[in-house]
Amino acid sequence: MQVTLKIFRYNPEDDQKKHYDTFTLEAEPTDRVLDLLERIKGKEDGTLGFRRACAHGVCGSDAIRINGVNRLACKVLVQDLKSKTVLIEPILGLPIEKDLIVDMEPFFDHYRSVMPYFVNDDPPPKKERLQSPEERERFD
Fold first, then answer.
1. What is the count of structural domains for the chain?
2. Could you tell me if residue 125 is inside a domain?
3. Measuring CA to CA, how many Å separate 139 from each of 60, 83, 116, 132, 134?
4. CB under 8 Å to 5, separation ≥6 — which residues?
5. What average pLDDT values come out for the chain (140 residues) when binned by 10 residues?
6. Per-residue pLDDT, 53
7. Quick one: pLDDT at residue 7?
8. Could you give the CA distance from residue 100 to residue 10 in angstroms, rounded to a whole number?
9. What are 52-58's contacts with CB under 8 Å, separation 24+?
10. What is the pTM of this model?
11. Which of 27, 56, 113, 115 is close enough to 3 for a disulfide, judged by CB 3.0 to 4.6 Å?
């Protein structure tokens, strides 16, 4: 099947104009949006900028907007897209560094300021602290 990606582009080193480039490529229903971005970067336009790391939906580094919804490119399959033309943009609320790459420092500054982890003032135990499945369920 053919899929058309309309991808947001911006490179502050080349020009200050934000625009969209369109790429049409063959895709399998089980291809992920991340697979399509990698194919474009590898075979059609090596200047395309986007982040990826684990490619398994754990790290979140490939977060982008797909058809206006924040998603992980590694988790969205072509077969789950509502149309054959797909709008790909950087996530909102963070400064754009290049194309789909945003500056995550404002996010991490806020993340660190709220200390999103448990602080235990007890001395460290002699062996690891175990957590039962029931205790874990309280946080899911």
1. 1
2. no
3. 19, 36, 13, 12, 10
4. 22, 23, 24, 25, 36, 37, 40, 86, 88
5. 97 88 97 98 96 88 96 96 95 94 83 81 89 85
6. 92
7. 99
8. 8
9. none
10. 0.79
11. 27
CB 95 within 8 A of CB 16: no
pLDDT of residue 9: 97
Q: Which DSSP string do the residues of 58-123 spell out, in sequence order? A: SS-TTEEEETTEEEETTT-BGGG-SSSEEEEEPPTTS-EEETTEE--HHHHHHHHHT--S----SP
Do 94 and 107 touch, CB atoms closer than 8 A? Answer: yes
65 domain-assigned: yes
If we measure between CA atoms, which residue out of 70, 14, 9 comes closest to residue 44? 9
123 falls within a domain = no
Residues 6+ apart with CB under 8 A from 138: none
- What residues form DSSP beta bridges with 89? 65
In this structure, what CATH number is given to the domain that contains residue 102? 3.10.20.30
Domain residues for the domain of 6 are: 2-113
What is each CA distance from 52 to 9, 35, 57, 64, in whole angstroms? 17, 11, 10, 11
